[in-house]
Every structure is written in C-alpha cells, then in structure tokens.
User: What shape does this take?
Amino acid sequence: MQKPKTIYLQDYKPSNFEITSVELTVDIQNRFTLVSSRLSFKKREELRGKKLNLDLNGESMELIGLKLNEENVPSDRFQVSADRLTLFNLVEDEFILEIQNKIDPSSNKALEGLYQSGPQLCTQCEPEGFRKITYFIDRPDVMSIYKTKMIADKTQYPFLLSNGNRIGSGDLPDGRHWVEWEDPFRKPSYLFAMVAGDFDVARDTFKTASGRKVDLEIYVDKGNLFKTGHAMESLKESMKWDEERFGLEYDLNIYMIVAVDSFNMGAMENKGLNIFNSTYTLADEKSATDHDFQNIQAVIGHEYFHNWTGNRVTCRDWFQLTLKEGLTVFRDQEFSSDMLSRAVKRIEDVMMLKEAQFAEDSGPLSHPIRPSSYIEINNFYTRTVYEKGAEVIRMIHTLIGSENFRKGMDKYFELYDGKAVTTEDFVNAMELASKKDLSQFKNWYNRPGTPTLVIRTKQEGDELVMDVEQKYPPTTLSLSEGSILHMPFVVGLLDKTTHQETEHLLEIKKLKETFRFKVTGEVIPSLNRGFSAPVYVDYPFQISDLITLMSFDSDPYSRYEATQKIYDYVLKNELNYLKATGKLSETLESDFQEAFRILLGNKDIDLSFKSYLLELPSENSLTQEMDRPDFEAIHLVHKNLQKKLGLQFQDWFLDQHETLSEVSRFELTPKAFGQRALKNQCLTYLVASGSEAGLRALAHHYESATNMTEEIHGLKMYIASGAPLEHPAIQKFYQKWKHDSLVMIKWFSSLAAFTPKSEALTRLSVLEKDPLFLNQVPNYLRALYLQFSKNNLHAFHDVSGAGYDFISERIKLIDGFNPQVASKAASSFSLINKLDEKRRGHMRSSLEKLVRGNPSKDTFEVVSKFLAQ
Ligand code: BES
Ligand code: ZN
Assistant: This one.
C-alpha cells in the first residue's frame, strides 16, 4: 500500500488566492443534489500580475460546468482528479468562477459534507467537509461572505436552513420551494452549514445586553419538543454568561440549533446554525441522566462560545486547532463551574484529563497541543488538543490573574477580530495585556508528554525547604534548546497539629529549583492545589499525612487527590497480596478503615463531592499506573475492595440509601445531583457486598426509580453482577424504552461496558444483530464497540486475544464507510506499548491485518503509529 502524504506545520504558506464572496445554489432532487457556486476570486496582493495555477479541493463529486468570467472554460485549461480541480495559467488578478457539480447525499455514509440523517439532510464541514459539497479552497484562512439559496420539495423538506439571516423565500412549480440565506460575517468554509427537513421547532428569544432581540430556535425530530427545555435554558444561560464574564454579545438576529441522530462528533459551531448530535440536545428527567443534563449544558455552552473564540477569530491552519478548541473548552469549563459546583466540576475535569489525556500522552499517539505534522487532521481532535489545551489556557489564567486574563481576551478581539490567527498570536495578546513575559510559557505548545515534578522537602528550623525538579518523557520531536516549561504551581502548607494552612503560588521556570517557606511547626505539603499544572507529582507521602489531607485540606481538589492516593495505596497492596498468595485479601487495614469511616461521617461536604471522595480509582486509572498490567487481577481486586467496604459499612450504606430515597421532587440543582449521585454510590457498595440486603436494595432501587440517573445505575448493577440477557431487569428496560433511541443507546452501552468477561463477546454478537441496533449510526457504534474496549478492560484485553480480533474486524467494516469513526475505534489499541508479550503479540497481529486491508488514511495513521511501537 502507498503511504499517504504527511502535512507539516513548517510548510505553511498563505493561499495564492482569496475568495471574497460565495454564492451557492443548492438544488435538492430525488436522486442527487445539484450545486451551483459563483465565487469571486482575488490574487493575493504580492502576486498581482503573475500568471498562476489555481488548485481547488473537491472530492466525491461530478463536475458538470465550469465558467471563468461568464465564459465556458476550454478543456485544455483545467484538469480534474479524485481530490482536486486545477485551472491553469490564470492571468486575471480578479475573476469570477462559476462551478456546477453533482453530489449524492444519500450515499454519503462518512457523514462529512452533505449527508442524510434519517429523513433529513444536514452538513458537517469541519475540518475538510466543504470540499465534498463543491470545489473550493478548503482551508480556514480563506474567509468569505456566503449567500446560499436552497431549493427542495416543500412537503419533504419544509425547512431549508443555512447560516446567517433569511433574506427571501418563495414557492415553485411541482410542489417545490426555495429559501435564501445571507451571512454578513466573513467565515472559513468549515463554518458553512445547511439543513433540509421536517422538524418540530422550539422557539424563544434573548435580549442582548445592548438591547437587541435574538430569535432562538431548536429544531428536533417530530414528537421531541418535550425534550428541548433544558437545551433552550442552557442556550440562554450561555448567552448571558458570555456577556457577563467576557463582555461578548451575540452578533446575528437568529441562533438556530438542529438536533440530528447521525453525527460523527458531539456538536458543531457553524455560524448561526449549530448542528448537534441529538444526545447533546434532548433530555427530560425520565430518559436523561444528570450527566446528560450537565453535558447538554456544557456542549450548548461550548458551541455558543465558539461564536467568538473560533468563528469571529478563527484558526490560520489546522495545526492551530487548540487556539479555538482549548480556549473554548476552558470557557465551557468556567461556564459549568459558575452554573453548578466549581469544586465538583474541577474534580470531574481533572479525573477525565488524567484518565484519558495522560493516557494518550504516554502512548503512541502522544503529540503536543499544537502538533507539527499529520496525515489526517480528523485524528487530531484529541484529548490533548482539547483538554490539555484547556489546561494550558487555565495556566495562563493562573499566572496573570483573572483580571489580566479578561484584558487579554479584550486585546485578542481588538487585534484579531475577523482574522485567521495562530496560538502564538493568542499568547501575545495575553502578554500585551498583562505585561508578563510568556515567551518561555510558549514551550507548552511544542512539548508532548506529561511532565513529572519530583518534589522533596526537608524542615530546617523554622524553614521548609522544597526542592523541585522537572522531568520530561523522552520525545522524538526536535525541540528548541532545553524547551523548559514555565508553570504555576499552587502549594498549601498544612500544620500537622493545628491544621492551619498557608497557600503559595510558585512559578516554576527551571529544571531544578529550591523554594523556602517560613513555618511555625511541622507541616504537610498539599501539592498542585486545584491541579494548577497538568503534571504528575512525585512526592513520598506518608499514609498518615494523606489521611490528614483527606480530612482537613481546604482545597477540594487536593482533598480528592489525597483520598485517591490512599485508595491507590490500598489497592496496590491488595494486588501484591493476590500476586504473592494467589488469594484475595479478606481484611481491611485498620488505618484505612478509620479514614473511610471519617469520610462517611463527614457532614459538612456537598453530596456530589462526597460521592466522588467515596469512589475508588477506576480500573482504567489503575491500569495506567502499571507496566504490563494484569487486567484480570485489577478487576478482581477492585471488586474485592468494594465488597469489603460494602460489607464493613453496610449499615451506613443501607441507611443512607434509604434516607436518600425519601427525596421525591426531581430538581436539576447541585444539591439534587449530589443526592442522586450519593444514592447510586451507596448502591454500588451494597451490591458489591453480595449480601442479601444489598440485593434487596438493588431490586427496590430499580423498581422504584423515577428518573434515568437511578434507573440506569440499577441496570448496570444487574449487568455487572452477571444477569443473563433474558433477566427480567434487562428485558423490562428494553420493552419500556424501545421507542426511545437515546435510551436504547444507553442500554447497548451498559451491556457492552459491564457484561462480565465470560459472556462479553457472545453478547456483543447478539446485540449487533438486534433490530434496534443501527449499524451505520456512530452513536450506536460507539455504544457497543468503544464502551467495550475502553470500559470493559478485562474482557477486551482477555489474554486469548479474542477481544482484539473482534474489535479489529469491526473497525475494518466501519472503515469501509466511516473512516472518522473507525479511526476513533482504533484508538482502543492505544495500550499496546504497556502490554505483556503475549497480549502485545495478539494485538500486533490484529493491527497488521488492519493495515494489510487497505485502510482509510485516518485508520492507517493511527494503526501505523501503534505498529511502530
Ligand atoms: N468543532 C467541534 C466539532 C468538530 C470536531 C467537528 C471535529 C468536526 C470535527 C466542536 O466545537 C466540538 O469541539 N465539539 C465537541 C464537544 C465539546 C463540548 C468539546 C465534540 O463534538 O465532541
Ligand atoms: Zn469546539
């Protein structure tokens, strides 16, 4: 197979041509769609008068007409290939090109460009989907004004939507109609969108700070209007929040969101016309979990916030992706923190970062937040670009303070509104506004891998001496001299006896540094408070110190971190015991028991926080900390510790579970989220205990559940405890929810993630044949295959290699029609460099089969990185 081409950041050159305006006419017919575009070109200033070729991107389409300045272009003046249209020797500095081409949305299963989702048509153009609609210079630094006229059958497609304002509409013969849209803002092609279909529409309005009225419209499948309330509220909250926190107002008179079932990602920020995966739009208490409600709020916020960070100021090229994504994730995290509980949100975000991003950054797919090369840009919408990118923005915020950060944002818009810029431009705006030198800080954009801070302390009289050393994982990238990171590091010093504390913001800028603090007695350091820097911390904590931090640290994140360290310590001891004796330990260490008891008894903390403090580190996070992980042992030890705690504290869990069952009203408040989270957590321990009382609690919990948060948790407990597919609990759920595809996706996910290993593969094979399993729709594919490979670790990594074979065969099938989803599924193999010989061998042979089978470039890029290990 021929190796696909690699694109390099260092090769960036501006486009030779600008496209100032785009006029599209899109005629949707039964068998195909006809696209006519009229493009106004201008040569770049410096190139005026030169004779140049023009290269346009274009894929999966048929060219049927081409005119240059109103004249047909003779066939010897242009060339069409599978991915481009080239016009030769253009002498004009300005000209108009008219292109006619045909596309077929109904056969487009990759879900890029114009495609069908159920009976509707919609588009996805980021990053390179516009080239599947018509020929274009499809790159983010080519920005144009768009006018779009859509024509279609009026009964089948009563709604025809595009970006901007509706400027006209009318009826045509044969039951057809047209609608025309104009977007007054210049934008890159990736922000273009169109939708055609029949919908129910939720409508509301928002009055901006300066008094303009904005129409808000949420388009959903017929019959789903009752599930739009939360999305609409979230949209209004987002608009208000961005005005208050950043002084940013919405800039068009209409904001539309369309929910579709077939979507490769979560949602997309197209100017004035967001397109959302229905999972991130629709919710009511019966069918959506608290996490669904929170995710909807976060995703609606995220896409809305892109209107400024992404759309008004966009990326020069796709290497700059974190410019808009890292910044916008930071903004949506701040929004959620302000709407809900800041402490809990930080714990959730860091938990995810450590589980997913740290893992990514320690494996074959590791890359800096601004990558320097790629084969397929779709593979770089990663945890690193997004979540580590957001941490990098958060560090700037910590280093310069929130007031300066706000000034920096103002500066950013003052300098770059309407432009396509780089991450460097962003940091420069922050520097200008804060007058702080961030030149060394920029190294974060180039260095891959998670740094470790090795910290050692000694007390010398009334001084605490703290030595800090930065260590980086090896990298093959060439980095400029040293490339030492600059980071904020927040440290608390907790007096061992009085529990009084002081807090210090350190700036670490050297490989080795020593800090000194005045102290009055013996202190325990509380390190990286609030997770101020995205690093591993290596410090030799005593268990007794961690127990003190767990109970008294005033920083909620550090307190959570201390409990996690305690669990880690206990679980590792239990793993060693199992390895040494072949048996699971039956006792609980008394110090640990005491610490857990104190935690249970703590009455001053919010219940969500408490349920996180009670949660054992996931099997995923334990795996990460180990070389050649023994998946089976991890699974057994994890369950066993839950069981022992469940038995030891059964009375408390039963009592608490019962008390929390008395809450009757359903509310979407942090308090109510906390009550349901803790109730579920109690059930987890009760079921793990294996006692009669635990099983009775499960039956009661499940039967009496009146919301999805509790119902789905009960279902998962049945599945994890080995219930067969025919079990009434599993069947009842199916019968109850078979009309609701979003809930059925949860049913499939739960079975894939929690079915015990002995049954897992057989069950997956049954589930994929279920009539409700739609095997071309990404949400279902992710529910079955990714939930299995990422969350049912001991089953997927079974030493026989059967799990690897199963998943790689499915990846091959999916790659045949949707490379983006296939390559995400291929990330299932990212643990390859940590595995023992045997598993690695099996994994390699599954991966080799994949590369030999002529994969898409998406899948090729990922799989070949795994095989290079
Ligand atoms: N711009 C992306 C959507 C996107 C990503 C489209 C990749 C095409 C290819 C959007 O703003 C986004 O980041 N969506 C996230 C959710 C968000 C809350 C982090 C997603 O879709 O997962
Ligand atoms: Zn985004």
Remarks:
- Residues 126-127, 265-269, 298-299, 302-303, 306, 325, 329, 332, 381, 386 surround BES (ligand 1) (CB under 6 Å).
- DSSP finds 26 helices and 31 strands in the chain.
